[in-house]
Amino acid sequence: MATWQERLGAFFTRCAGRAVRAAPAWAWAPIPLLLLAEFVLWRVDPGFAYEPRFLLLVLNSIFHTAVSLFVSYLAARTYRAQGDASMLLLGCGVLISGLAGTTAGAIIPMRMVNQGVTVYNLGMLFAAGCHLLGAVICTSGGARRTGRGAPLLLAGAYVGAAVLVAGLAVASVQGLIAPFFQQGIGPTPLRQFVLGSAIVLFTTAAVLLGLSRRRNPESFTRWYPLSLGLLATGLLGMYVVTHVGSPLSWVGRGAQYLGSVYMLVAGLAAVRESGAWGGALRLALQEAEGRYQALFNAMNEGFFLGEVLCDERGEVADIRILEVNPVFGSLTGIRPEAAHNHTVRELLPVVEPEWLTAAGRAGLHGRAETFEAYSAGLERWYRTSVFPLAPGRFGALFLDVTDRHRVEQALRESRDDLERRVEERTQELRRRADQLARLARDLTLTEERERRRLAQILHDHLQQLLVGAKFGLETLGRRTEDRRAETVTQVMSLLDDAIAASRSLTIELSPPILHEGGLGAGLEWLGRWMLEKHGLTLDLSADPSADSDREDVKVLLFQGVRELLFNVTKHAGVTHASVALGLHDAEHLRVVVRDEGVGFDPASVWETNDEMAGGFGLFSIRERLGMLGGRLEVDSSPGRGAQFTLIAPRGTGRAERGEGEGRSDVPDVHPAPARALAGPEADGRIRVLLVDDHVVMRQGLSLLLDDEPDIEVVGEASNGEEAVREARRLRPDVILMDFSMPRMDGVAATRAIVGERPGARIIGLSMYEEADRAAAMLDAGAIAYVTKSGDPGALLSAIREGACFATGP
């Protein structure tokens, strides 16, 4: 703190000395000019007023308070250095005027104008007395300069000045002093007397100091009387002013403000001439130099002072080293005493030219820079911070960052190696993910193939054998005596139960409609099946365009929806659910299964997966969908129902056809010459063509029909193509057409035969009872659809009814 004050005081002292030497003649000029202005404005009043409170507060705070307190501080320092009593009185006078102005500025805003005016005027009177007494001492030669001032006397005088102002303020506020100002009337005679006395005292002190200037031609004696004369001039303007805020009052204030500035210059001149801060400044400089040298030698960074050397073009040619610290020597191998006044190129011939140019330009153009450079000769990295000190000179901090660069290089190499390894692992993970996706697809397709294989075995072999046996029993029953008919009926009932169980198992294993009609048709069948088997009502909404050409996706979504509906029947406690099939986006399908049941906590389901460990549960659905590029979203909470969203890839090609839909194998059909028929042939028997891919089924049908006197089996076919050829060759009255057959199914064959012979009577046969299969056969041109496991009498009735209306080519 002391060092800052000393340096600041020395700065102001030098400024004051230059001002005194530069303007000793015109320093008196403001006084007569201001007096002339006051006289003119007193005689010719312009008649306007301007009194901004904020501006007055700022000006008074600067010139009456801040400047006065600082000048009193300078006077105290001068008194302590010289022991001059006149400087002590000067400090007291300035302190009183400053404190009085501050107190008045604090009282007047509180609607105590009279009290503020009283404190200020009396304070100026006492301040003028102190200045006059100091001028008398200075003029009479009684100033005692002992080289030191008594600190107790200084403290007592300043405390007394403060107590005096405080006493004036208390007495004025308490009404112990007669009014100096009356509202609506103006200043009282007492105020005019006090203010006039202060003007006289300030003027007398200024004259006395002016007369003593010849004997004491110091800068202080030049500025001190001028400041007192300006204060007297300012108070004179305030004395004769008629109304607040007039131009005359502003001239008076300006004179006082200028007097405060002159007083500040006088105080600085007194400090400068007394040498109050000279010894302290030298001591401070010595202490600063000691601290600088200690810091210079103890720095962890290398440091040197440099001077830029330029060539004839003004470009940086070299750098002269003025001073270096020991750390710089350890970094470069150069002893500090050997570096003085040598250039960088002389001491460090391997230094990089870029570093030399950058450092030189920073010092030459006066800008701070920080950069890093590599020295090929020293094989070291340096971080350099250059900061300008004077034109052409700069300081530079050197920090060896070679180890950091080596670590960074190792980190970069490690990062590159890590990125390479991460990329390799990523590729491996992608390959594994692709493998998992293929495995999931293969697993789903393999499971479905096994289901379809088992269903096909049940349908194509076991069920056909059972139906064939049933037809044989039906024939046998007709030829059996009455006492054995009951036994035959019981066996046929058992066969019906076996056929029904086999058919139900076949459909549950692999619903044919899923592969033949697509995902939407499969979900419709599932809704009917859930209602029939489990009493669960299903609301289904299916977008016709929402289908996939990927068999694994269709199967997985179907099996997933079926598993979720099983969970509804087992856990939700409701008999109603909804399923919505649609497009999630252009590349994905979305199936939403929702119920309003008891709900559950999804987190607990994923944590405890025991119930699904061996089945097609939520965990399995989620994992398989994820492997195929889809996902399962679960939204549920206890008491709020549950919603499951299955999202899976859609695929891009046409939907795969189910087995047996070989419509491309339809042979060319040429219409035959037409001939009219009226029912059966002339012998009255109905000519029937049997079309079925299972020989046992054909044998059973043949036995059943051969036992009928009005029906004759004229031919057999094992697939759709043979059926088309035999129908063209034999022209039967009725064709019994199996629905599912290899090479060409019953629907395609029926459409081909009806296209060639519009009057052909075709009855569809199938082990399945689904309405969609019956509708497909009827749409193709069949006249009826009969299940193989049904009552043989219904088949015979259908044959006879169809034959009675047979017409065509």
What descriptive keywords fit this protein?
809 residues, alpha/beta, 6-stranded antiparallel β-sheet, 5-stranded mixed β-sheet
Could you explain the architecture of this structure?
By secondary structure, this protein is α/β, with parallel strands linked by helices. The chain has 26 helices and 18 strands. It has a six-stranded antiparallel beta sheet with strand order 5-4-3-8-7-6. A hairpin with a 4-residue loop joins strand 6 and strand 7. Helix 1 crosses helix 10. The chain is elongated and about 175 Å long. The N and C termini lie far apart (128 Å). Residues 610-615 and 653-679 have low confidence and may be disordered.
Give me a quick take on this structure:
The protein contains 26 helices and 18 strands. With 809 residues, it is an alpha/beta fold.
Q: Count up the helices.
A: 26
Strand order of the largest sheet: 5-4-3-8-7-6
Distance between the termini: 128 Å
Radius of gyration: 60 Å
Low-confidence stretches: 610-615, 653-679
Average pLDDT for all residues: 75
- What is the count of β-strands? 18
- Strand content of the residues, in percent? 5-15%
Helix proportion of residues, in percent? Answer: 55-70%
Describe the sheet with the most strands.
6 strands, antiparallel
Shape: elongated
Structural class: alpha/beta
